[in-house]
Design goal:
Distance between the termini: 34 Å
Order of helices and strands: HEHHEE
Shape: globular
Number of helices: 3
Helix content: 40-55%
Number of strands: 3
Structural class: alpha+beta
Largest sheet: 3 strands, antiparallel
């Protein structure tokens, strides 16, 4: 599978919002979104992480939650549903 093209900000925003709308939880990090919402494989590049975090920070109904430790992903900058 090809890597998700995060340089296409319209497609990224649409994919992020679609995943967040379906997400049952109230907390998310960019790595979780990369693997589960964008079907990412391998390790995302710093540019991909920045693009995902930017899209998360602009997502309606979500706010910065600071650093949260995840069992699968370790300590990550996170966003919470408001």
């Amino acid at each position: 599978m090809a890597r998700f093209d995060v340089s296409d900000t319209k497609a990224l925003t649409k994919a992020v919002e679609k995943y967040l709308d379906a997400l049952a939880g109230k907390l998310i990090c960019a790595l979780q979104l990369w693997y589960e919402g964008l079907d990412g494989h391998g390790v995302p590049t710093p540019e991909e992480m920045l693009a995902i975090e930017t899209a998360l920070s602009k997502a309606p109904g979500w706010a910065d939650a600071g650093i949260v430790r995840y069992e699968k992903f370790g300590a990550q900058k996170s966003y919470k549903r408001i």
